[in-house]
Amino acid sequence: MDLTPLLSWACIVFTVGMFSTGLTDLRKMRESKSADNIQFLPFLTTCLNNLGWLFYGTLKMDHTIIVVNVIGALLQILYIVMYFLYTKLKRLVTLQTLAAAAVLICGWLYFTTFLTEGDARLQQLGLTCSVVTISMYLSPLTDLIAIIRSGNVQVLSFPLTVATFFTSTAWVLYGLQLNDYYITVPNTPGIFTSLIRFYLFWKFASTSQSLPSYKPLHA
Fold first, then answer.
1. How does DSSP classify residue 165?
2. What is the pLDDT of residues 96-139, one digit of tens each?
3. Could you tell me which residues come within 8 angstroms of residue 25 by beta carbon, excluding any fewer than 6 positions away?
4. CA distance 82 to 154
5. CA-to-CA distance for 189 and 11, rounded, in angstroms?
């Protein structure tokens, strides 16, 4: 039985749902007219990651990867624009965005000019995207260590944790179905970090005075 179509839809639905958690931050910015207490770099790095995977999906002609990352990139660009409108640190945000654009242009030139057409370019691009995705999934580990020490899970988002778990699981199964380890391997850490977060919610949520609040911890 070919599960590829089902897994494809699962990847699209769960991933778009995960990206959409940023709409909560967008609403907060609009209501408060401020970007205070909202992190900018997760939006920027996720946008770069989306564009990298979009290039990979285009080279591989994988419509699932293309659709997911087109939607993801557009959402991240929206978050970036709205953040810029409401932040007081416009100079810093501009410099960070220009630096990201420079990295993007250099990467595009490398993969389109210095690498030959074919498997070599696809493999190096897949490896690069995989490394970036793994680093994004593992980056919140320092926050998790702090939560273990403090016993306070209010800085975590339970809906985002659920979305990350199902998204990572869907992509791992999709990658296994296609025998594409550049998809399977980088999404595996997302499952483990989500399980760690579930354990922390189970252990510490009862000691919190309120439900977990949203925070842009992009896995």
1. H
2. 999 999 999 999 999 988 876 778 899 999 999 999 999 988 88
3. 38, 79, 214, 216
4. 25
5. 16
Q: How far apart are CA 133 and CA 90, in angstroms?
A: 27
For residue 2, the 8-state DSSP code is -
- pLDDT at position 117: 72
Whether residue 76 contacts residue 54, with contact meaning beta carbons closer than 8 Å, is answered with: no
- pLDDT at position 208 is 52
Listed as ranges, residues in the chain with pLDDT below 50 are: 209-219
Transcribe 13-60 into DSSP letters. HHHHHHHTTHHHHHHHHHHHT--TT--SHHHHHHHHHHHHHHHHHHHH
Size of the chain in residues = 219
Q: How many CB atoms lie within 10 A of CB 13?
A: 14
Which three-class secondary structure state does DSSP give residue 80?
Answer: helix
> What local confidence, expressed as pLDDT, does residue 60 receive?
94
CB 144 within 8 A of CB 200: yes
Residue keyed to tokens 């190096």: 124
User: Tokens at residue 205, please?
Assistant: 């949520």
Element (DSSP H or E) covering residue 209: none
Check if the beta carbon of residue 188 is closer than 8 Å to that of residue 111: no
215 backbone dihedrals φ, ψ, rounded to 5°: -150, 135
110: amino acid identity, one letter: Y
The token duo for 102 is: 């420079």
